[in-house]
Every structure is written in structure tokens, then in C-alpha cells.
Amino acid sequence: MGPGRLNWRYVASIDQGTASSRCFVFDDRARIVSVAQHEHRQHFPRPGWVEHDPEEIWRNVELVVRVALDKADLSPTDLCALGIANQRETTVLWDRRTGAPVHNAINWQDTRTDRLCREITREHGQEMFREKTGLPVSTYFSGPKIRWLLDHIPGLQERAEAGEVLFGTIDSWLIWNLTGGPGGGRHVTDVTNASRTLLMNLQALDWDPALLDAIGVPAAMLPEIRSSSEPYGEAGPPIAGVPVASALGDQHAALVGQTCFNPGDAKCTFGTGSFFVLNTGERPVTSSNGLLSTLAYKLGSAEPVYALEGSIAVTGALVQWFRDNLGLIGSAPEIETLALTVEDNGGCYFVPAFSGLFAPHWRSDARGVIAGLTGYINKGHLARAVLEATAWQTREVMEAMNTDYGRSLSALRVDGGMTPNNLLMQFLADVLDVPVMRPIVAETVSLGAAYTAGLAVGFWQGTDGLRKNWHRAAEWLPSMDTGARERGYRKWKKAVARTVDWVDDDE
Amino acid sequence: MPGRIQSIERAAAILRLLSGRSRRLGVAELAGELRLPKGTVYGILRTLQAVGFVEQDRDSGKYQLGPALLHMGSSYLDGNELRTRALNWADGLATRSGESVRIGTLHENQVLIVHHVFRPDDTHQALEVGSLLPVHATALGKALLAHHDYLVAELAPGSLPSYTPATVTDVYRFRSELEAIAQRGWAVEVGELFHGSASIAAPIEDRRRVTVGAMSIAGPIERLCDGRQPRAEFVDYVMEASRAVSRELGAIPW
């Protein structure tokens, strides 16, 4: 044990999310010692376009790190390492020499590459991408976003080929800036973030020339792919000397934070959208049911661990829409109060395919539907239908997981902003027909980044010790009878069938 | 100084009637009470409805106070909102104390459990959200009642049933205990609801310093108490967590 380690009391992590950046400091029992948060602006230059300012994000990250340390009266020497969990797929291109972004970051929700994705699919098919990356071609992923920027910014293609312009997801952008920026910053990414680009070969864990060629991305602009848990470099101010020692996409970090280290362990994070991730062990499982095959994490030199993922675009966002666009509630939690004014959904189903259907359907031509409307339906029934939509969408993803994985899940670990909603969590247990459990540390994304950073520097010894930090804060057990569950699911599927084939080709 | 505005006075009179015993009145009933033409009353109601201060019941066509007004009311805080805002602090309290945590609000002279965090030892526990507990035999109830004088005044002699020999059933003794609780800012119950278990609670206040709920830890007497006295560090944990939630709700830091 080196002399520096005696000071190691804490580990810090950054959760760079879609709406805000946060910094957490944890002790060795995974208890939160300090937290700071700062929101950033989202830019919507056109319908379907979503951008962030990368420099604003970097400034906010510096700020929250400083504030989190100040709040608990800590100095960088108290920290063993810093970990990063980040919004995935969001794409930044910047100038290697000046460090200035060449354009705003294109956010993961942005659909401007819709036509580009159709062209790529027409030319190369979906099969090669499915096979090599585990992903379908979709606007969601980084590769097409890079291509769009290369196509639309004059001279960028040449600069990228010459290695003057660098690509990174948010983790790369932050690590590069943390470790020195233009003055020697490390240009790296981790396997989980790289697995969301459509450019990385899932088996080789390296950029695949055939994929780079198909999408048209020069290799010179890509970061080096590293594990999720290893020292990438030393940070400069505001935490000079602290090793930056982990990077994970936020959903992968949540899987780690939930200590889902065994094959068959699964978690679902219920936020604006929801992300269901199942640990499938040391080999990727090919999905024939519309799920993504992806990395769970890779801890240093250990074998990579793979996962199946089902993402649901609109869950909490539907509650926000109900609040902001219909104005039937004043705050998101009030939806539970409104939903409890009625006993059931009154036969009403709400499929929020606002920008198409994601897993397991992947239909970009779908749009939202409220089905089963009668004169009897009031706002309480609508509130029920809004909440139930989250649970039914989760059920669809779980069925796909069970089929692809070949085993049925026995429980689901949950986290995220919707878990305080008791009515929803009970309904979820009812329609999934498995126990639903919430851990006592709800900040699983930040915790996962802290765990992987702490493991990389020896602050924690192994994953078994981390499991002891996981405690059940609440558990909801299924109590719906089979008949009611299956009747409800049948109606839900009928409602889903009514959403597709809405968008026409000439739109 | 300009004179008083008649239509605002009339609107206030309508709201006062709707907040009274009947709570739901039609245009004709309101017009009769106020001795005003139905057209005038209807116009005012339409305006109040547009700003969310009243709403019309679809089946009966009668009017009642609207959600916007309820939100402005002194102690209204949605229990589901309270749970959401308190979640991280309640988790933290369970982690620090090693005991189960509950948040309660007053509901028809009982304590309604709006949030429950399991004791973090992974033993089998059942979620108690939605259950009702007696106000006088729980620390939650005492913490809530201590700050609602008007409810205490309504307690009639003989209205406090006994659950164990330790339950406080004497109204006068109960009132003096509540006064002490209001002074020191926390409540305790030792074996008063169940043999062998104790609970410690502190109030949660909103930005007007109105008590909107209370947060407690509960566990075996031998873990929570030294003799019959609650352990000081547990009282500190509960006070700190409930203050943190109060701050979250906008109460003035103290």
C-alpha cells in the first residue's frame, strides 16, 4: 500500500446527464458524502433536432466538482479517483489544437439523421450492423451523427481525415478536457460508450474498418477504446492529481451501481425514458426480438461482460407531457394522486409513440395513440393510462429479454425518477409478475461510476464487497390475478398495433 | 386610496361559501345565498374556473374549490409529492440509523403512511404505504399533532384507545406531552403501540413553517433507547433528516 492511500477516504463521480451535470462524493460504504448539480441548456434549432453546448457542459462539470468538494470541505487529496457516467451517443467533434468544438453536440434524441440512416440501410442492409455491433441502424447512435456533421460543415471531412478534428461521446470530451485538453489531453473512450456508435465490433472491442467505411467515418478522428475501469490519466484543476479512472454510459453505470454482476441480473431505470438492461455474462447474446446487444462493462483486464438492453423512449416524458401540455396536474408526483381518484383505467390505453416505437418494435413510422376512449373516461382514467403505459412497455421489453436470453427473469431492480411513484411500482410488479425492488441508494448511475473508479485504484477490492452495499429500500410483490393481467396486456397490444404506419414517406 | 372592488368581494364570498360545509354548490344555490342575480354569479364562477380556483363537477353541474386554490391553502401538500421530495433524505436516514423509516401525514385524525423505507438488513419486510396508524400511539402522530393546536383542542376525554399498558390514554397528559414535543421539536413513543418497539419522529415543515408531515424511524426498544429514553444520536439523525426535507420544501434554514 502506497503512502498516498492512507488519505483515501472518498471516491468522486460525475453523472453527466441529458439535463444536468452532477458530482457525487461517496465513502467506502457507498454512502453519499456530498453532491452538487447544475443544469445546462438544451437547444432545439428545428423540430426533431436537439443540441447541447459542449463548452457549457465542460464548464458545469468543473463547477459541480468544485462545489461538491467545497460543500464537504474536501480537497483533491481526499479522493482516490474520479469516475464518469455520461449520457450516451451524444456526439461532440472538436479541434485537436484549440479544443474548440466545431459544432454543438448532437444529442442522442436528435432525429436529423433519419434520412441518412435510411440511405445507409438501403446501401448496406441492417444485417452487417446487427451482426458486428449488436445494434440496428438508427438515429439514436453516434456514427450517423458524425457523418451528418462531416457532410454539413465545409472542410470538416478533410480536417477529420488529417486527424485535426476529434470525435468523442461525452465521456471522451470530459476525459480529454480533464486530463489537459489541447495540452496533452487523453483521447480515449470506454467499451460501453464505444458500443453505442455503430462503429465498434462487439467481439473484437475495436473500431471495425467495414463499419467505418459503410458510414464514412475516418479512423483518424476516433478515440482509443479502453476498459470501463482503469486509470486513463491524471486530472488537472479543479482536482489536480486525481486519477480519472472510469467511464461508462449512464445505463451501464446504473447496472454496476445496482450490483447486477451475475448473469441473469437485471435493472430498469425509469426516467424521462426507461432503460432495461440484463447482464448476459461473458458472451454477447444476439437478439431476434428487437433488443440491443451491448457491453455491460469491462473491468480493467478482466473479460468483458455483455448485456441485452431494451430502451423505451417515452415513460416519465409522458407524465411531463401530461403536466406541461395538458395541464391536468401541477407537478409530476401529482399524477399518482389524480390516478387514485379512479379504480382502473376505464378501458383507456395510451401508447406514447411520440417519435416512433423503440424496443422491441423499432417502428419509426409509428405515432402516439389514446385508445379505448368513451364518454365515461375522465382525467383520472387518463392519468392511470399514462402511468400504465410505462409498465406495459416494460413488460414488452421483459418478454423479449426472456425469449432472447432463454431464461425468465426472477426479479427486477429499479431506480430513477419514477420509482417514488408507488402506484406505478405496484402496477409494474403486477404486470411483470415478478418482484420489483428499489435499492436504498437511488443514485445508481453515480454509484456505478464511483464503483468502477474505486475498483480501478484499489479503493475497493472486488465486486463481491460491493454487493454488500446493496440494500432493499422497498419491494413490490405481484398481486394481480393472471386473467386480469393477460386481458390488460391483450388490450395494450391492440393499442400498440394502432400506432404503426402513421408517418408517410413524403413527410 | 381607491375604493374596494365589488366583483372581487363577491368572488371572495363565493369562495367562502364553497369552502364551507356543503363544499359543492350550484349557481342557483350560490345566487340565493348571496342575493345576487344568477347571471352575475355565473360570470364570476366562469372567471374563477378559468384561473383554476373553482371547478365544475361534471355529473351534478355544481361548483367546488379547484386544485389551484387548494395548492395555495396553508397546509396542502400532496402526499405523493412529499414522498418524491423526501426520498433521498429518507433513504439516507435509513442508511445512517440502520432502522426502517416512515413518513406520515394527518388524515382524518389518523396518521397516513405516505412513504416507507425498509430497514437496510435485507430481511423480509412489507411495504406499509397507505396504511393508517393512531395519532396518539405513534411518534409520527405526536409530531404531527404537536403543531396542529386546533386538532388537539378537539380531543375529547376518553377518545384515546389503549394498545398496550404504555399507551397514553389520558387527554390532559397527552396534551402536556404534545406541548413538550412542540418545544423540543421531536417526539418519541416507547412501546405504546406494540410491545417492545419504539419510534422517534420529527416534523417536516414547508416554506411557511406549517407542518405538512413527519418522518420517523422505528425499531426495537433496546436498539433505539437507553432505558426508556431515546438515544441522542438517533434523535439527531431524525431531526437532521426532517430538517433537510423541510429545506427541500423551502422552509427557512435554521
Describe this structure in words.
The complex is a heterodimer of chains A (507) and B (254). In chain A, strand 1 and strand 2 form a beta hairpin. In chain A, helix 10 packs antiparallel against helix 12. Chain A has 507 residues and is α+β, with helices and mostly antiparallel strands. The longest helix of chain A is centred in the last third of the chain and has 27 residues. In chain A, the strands form seven sheets. A seven-stranded mixed beta sheet of chain A has the order 17-18-16-15-21-22-23. Chain B is an alpha+beta fold and 254 residues long. Chain B folds into two domains: 63 residues, Arc Repressor Mutant, subunit A, CATH 1.10.10.10; 170 residues, Beta-Lactamase, CATH 3.30.450. Helices cover 42% and strands 20% of the residues of chain B. In chain B, helix 1 crosses helix 3. The longest helix of chain B has 19 residues. The model of chain B has no long low-confidence stretch (mean pLDDT 88). The interface between A and B is medium-sized, with 24 and 29 residues.
